[in-house]
Amino acid sequence: MLICSAGRRVELLIAFRRAAGHLGVDLQIIACDIQPEWSAACRFADKSFRVPRADDPDYVPAIEAICRDNGVGLVVPTIDTELQPLADARDRLATLGVWVSVSDPALVAICRDKLLTARFLTEHGIPVPRTTAWEDIDPAAWTGPAIVKPRGGSAGRSILKIDTIDKLPASVPEPMIVQELLLGEEWTVNLYFDGKGLLHSVVPHHRVQVRAGEVEKGVTGRPIQLLDMAEKLAAALPGARGALCYQAIIAADGTAKLFEINARFGGGYPLAESAGASFAQWLIEERLSLPSSASNDWTTGVMMLRYDAAIFVSP
Asked: Angle 105-112/114-123 helices, nearest 10 degrees?
């Protein structure tokens, strides 16, 4: 298998290696990155390769060559910018016997644009924070604090919180949205869909503490609002496949609003894995046509307390 843009995703690589061992599968894990020599996950992999940036026209051909030359049967993307090119190339790679674990291009396009996400969810009756394109904002019609962020951003990049709309920046470097600032508990909900688009597992975790956009301290739970929201989301999403996650805020009055969907493994997926929802194992089972163990049977109250670790490479 190939893990793309592997970066620091050592825990994800370990999850696949553990799942293969549990199934008795001889799995070789290949990782790629724009600088594999500086990637911890690439150092953990059995092989690693250098590839262009995901927005480079040569990116997909590079992935295709790695798959063809190394007998890769499963490709797992990990960052937002590579989702669209890999989704668009999914059928092309399938002719080589390569299964890319990515949702349909139309779904990826919705998830990659936060304004489209808000509009899509509103159309399907799923609560979202009030959201407007930066260029369409009407200061007279907007009250309360807000958050300004890129339409296509991720990992907490370029986010600005403002107390009042008159603090809105006069210019922006890229397409931005203005969104109601939600207050309450922040949750991530990990979702697993099979190759036919059926939802098998919903694993929420409370993001107790976050660093650089990733959960640092978290705990699994089953808030009914988020479970119901997941079912509605699954019914609305066009062509969901593999691992996805969404983020939501539960307010003090118990209401929940969804503000982001990621069509990939979330950074907090290892917590779902440790709670008993092994998306990695289920993907391997499906790819090899083994009996599926996918279920929604996992443990609440499992905590994740992340810490820094290092890999040392001799010259």
From this structure: 110
SS (H, E, C) 247-293: EEEECCCCCEEEEEEECCCCCCHHHHHHCCCCHHHHHHHHHCCCCCC
- pTM passes above 0.85: yes
Residues ≥6 apart with Cβ < 8 Å to 16: 1, 3, 27, 29, 76, 280, 284
CB atoms within 10 A of CB 84: 19
Cβ atoms of 44 and 13 within 8 Å: the answer is yes
Tell me the C-alpha distance between 68 and 117, whole Å.
35
Judged on CB neighbours under 10 Å (0-12, 13-18, 19+), 262 is: buried
Task: Tell whether the model's pLDDT for residue 28 goes beyond 80.
Answer: yes
Query: DSSP string spanning 37-82?
Result: GG-HHHHHSSEEEE---TTSTTHHHHHHHHHHHHT--EEE--SGGG
Residue 4 tokens, joined: 């793309």
Q: Angle at Cα 206 formed by Cα 165 and Cα 129, nearest 5°? A: 30
CB atoms within 10 A of CB 255: 11
Token reading at 12? 């994800």
What is the reported pLDDT for 239?
Answer: 95
pLDDT at 153: 63
Question: Looking at the chain, how many residues does it have?
Answer: 315
Strand pairing class (131-133; 160-162): unpaired
Query: Is the CA virtual torsion 170, 157, 221, 309 positive or negative?
Result: negative
Residue among 62, 66, 52 nearest 2 (CA): 66
Gap between the Cα atoms of 139 and 144, Å rounded: 11
With contact defined as beta carbons under 8 Å apart, do 248 and 189 qualify? yes
Q: Partners of 100 in the beta sheet?
A: 75
Amino acid in position 268: G
